[in-house]
# Entry
Amino acid sequence: MADILSALPDEVVCHILSFLQTKEAVATSILSKRWNHLWRSVLVLNFPDTILYHQDAYFRFTDIICSVLVSVTPIKDFKISLMYKYSQEDLTLDVPGFYDWIDFLVERGVEKLDLYLWLGMPGVPDLPDTILTCKTLVSLKLRFFSINFTFPSLQLPSLKTLDLEFIFCQIDENFMLLLAGCPILDKLTISKIWGFHSQSTNKWEKFSLTNLTQASIDSTYFHFPLEPLHNVHSLSISTAKMDSYNNHVLPTFHNLTSLDLNSFNYRWHFLIQLLKHSPNLQTLKLNEAASDKDIWTKDEETWTRQDDKENWVDPDCVPQCLSLHLKTCHLLSFLGLQGELLLAKYILKNSVVLQTMKIWNGGQPKIKRLLLSCPRASSTCKLTVYHVLCKL
# Structure
């Protein structure tokens, strides 16, 4: 059989190599003379799951990175996941070389950065400031960085995707400056922001991410106001247990068609307000568990209690999204509590164009019987109840 891969043009082979880890792409150089330099034309550098245990290993890794960086041009996409589990004598070790790598990439017009830098104690490294003025950057993903310094200037005119996780920030103005410096931002993901607990809405009243269409906000560790997100089409929220949006004035999400609400602690008032402020909503997903795995780890008290923390009360008027637009509703980690049953019945009774209602129920067969017998506003609605066996 002919060698089909060798017959492909260099551009196609390089594209295939871009899906490999960089060390695997470099290893192909031994295949033949033709392959000897192909890896140098790969636009993506990927160094995943790198764990280093001592200083010498770190310096050897730094040498490898530097060697690859000067060998590959241009570099459009750079990914690194580096965990340094140093010993006691290395506690003062900084990250020599790391900021030089970022400077090098920014100077050469990098478009995508995915940076994971875990140093453990005693602290979290500062975000490299050269990133904040990178005019070519289209996608930025950061994990384990601090943004508590004062920005000298901030311009990310090409950035469309921003993903922040395990970020330390005590100054909400810094967060505003970071977001304001991304004028064409389209997709925003924020999770596990430490130290940022401000609930002041005055600073955010006139702040808007005009071009944002998708947002995923986990406010378990901080309070992020919803005003800047009012233009989004798709929104996922994991609300904080310690903070509450119940008394917060919500914006109207005129463009919102998909809402995913997680871990909202059975705050029915908040849900009703969200529905009222989302007039064009088509897809609703509710999951009381913080993650899909949480449904398996509920304790016995949670599974057997009969009453919600907050009583469900039918709103005075049916939200416009239910009467006109809602087509899909998913209720996950459904325990069959009184408020949950009333919610499900209310949605079935008032959603005129509802096509699909799916419920993942925690092992109570009677739930399906109760819901199948309740009236439905939509004659075409298909109701499916899945029974999830729970480990107590």
